[in-house]
Design goal:
The protein is mainly α. The protein has a domain of about 40 residues. Helices cover about 55% and strands about 0% of the residues. It contains three helices and no strands. The protein is elongated. The protein starts with 5 loop residues before the first helix and ends in a 14-residue tail after the last helix.
Amino acid sequence: MKRASLDDMLTGKESRYALVIGVAKRAREIADEFKEEGLITDEKPVLLAIEDFKNHKYNILEEEDDED
């Protein structure tokens, strides 16, 4: 499996911290889906979540700074 570059996953002004939090939340969703469906797999939820962000299936939404 090819390693994903952070720069490839970050579009615009998203922070690395926001990306890490987003990947962690998506990995938890994937793990919960596996548990609910009773699926057993060798694939790690974190790696699947990283692939989702790398393929732009999910994006990070951050609040815009108001500099008024």
